[in-house]
């Protein structure tokens, strides 16, 4: 059973992210849900990424440039919250992102004690280049997303094989029980791998359309 407003820890890997990080952190600061810890795991950036992270009051961890899987693990291990949320430095989240995901997790938990994670879509911005639009389209296919729901636009809560790390909530203790992300995978399929290992252990993963 979860508290009504548990502390949640948002883990964001960064690497030379100054061009996008401000918009990302501004979107997190606008959240209606306020019991939040922001964790930036920086992989030796050479630009103003660290300066921006400090300006927004984020907890800062340093990580040798081993890739986002290792960065997410470092952030997860240092998180104070029992609930972990992951997004990326080039993502902008809606104002109700935290509330929707935490409420969805709590609601599903009432009927499914084996829920490990809940997440949503990864939608390209409206004003973007052709390549990004095509990438978003590819993600709606099985091969493009490795079965992840990241490019899907379901209309209701669905049990899915995988969700994308850029828009996801996980139970920290459950992730710890499978030793978090496989750092050997770098940034290729590490989210699908962790979801596969969770399902293999009998846990369930859900897509939240809101």
Short description:
The chain is α/β, with parallel strands linked by helices and 210 residues long.
Q: How much helix is in the residues?
A: 25-40%
Largest sheet: 8 strands, mixed
Report the C-alpha radius of gyration, rounded.
Answer: 16 Å
Helix run count: 8
Task: Explain what you see.
The protein has 210 residues and is an alpha/beta fold. The chain contains 8 helices and 8 strands, in the order E-H-E-H-E-H-E-H-E-H-H-E-E-H-H-E. Helix 2 links the parallel strand 2 (36-42) and strand 3 (59-62). The protein starts with 7 loop residues before the first strand and ends with a strand.
In terms of topology, how is this protein built?
Layout: E1 8-14, H1 18-29, E2 36-42, H2 49-55, E3 59-62, H3 68-78, E4 83-86, H4 97-109, E5 115-119, H5 130-138, H6 142-145, E6 158-159, E7 168-171, H7 172-177, H8 190-200, E8 204-207
Parallel strand pairs: 1-2, 1-4, 2-3, 5-8
Antiparallel strand pairs: 4-7, 5-7, 6-8
What are the defining features of this structure?
210 residues, alpha/beta, 8 helices, 8 strands, 35% helix
């Amino acid at each position: 059973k979860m508290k009504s407003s548990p502390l949640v820890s948002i883990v964001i890997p960064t690497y030379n992210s100054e061009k996008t990080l401000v918009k990302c952190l501004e979107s997190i600061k606008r959240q209606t849900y306020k019991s939040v810890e922001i964790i930036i795991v920086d992989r030796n950036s050479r630009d103003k990424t660290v300066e921006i992270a400090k300006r927004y009051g984020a907890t800062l961890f340093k990580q040798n440039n081993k890739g986002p899987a290792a960065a997410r693990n470092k952030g997860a291990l240092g998180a104070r919250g029992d609930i972990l949320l992951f997004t990326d430095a080039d993502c902008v989240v809606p104002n109700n992102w935290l509330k929707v995901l935490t409420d969805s997790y709590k609601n599903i938990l009432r009927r499914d004690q084996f829920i490990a994670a809940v997440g949503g879509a990864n939608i390209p911005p409206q004003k973007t280049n052709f390549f990004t639009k095509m990438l978003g389209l590819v993600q709606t296919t099985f091969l493009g997303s490795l079965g992840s729901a990241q490019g899907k636009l379901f209309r209701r809560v669905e049990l899915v094989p995988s969700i994308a790390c850029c828009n996801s909530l996980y139970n920290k203790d459950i992730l710890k029980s499978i030793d978090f992300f496989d750092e050997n995978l770098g940034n290729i399929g590490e989210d699908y791998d962790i979801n596969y290992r969770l399902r293999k252990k009998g846990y369930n993963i859900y897509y939240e359309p809101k």
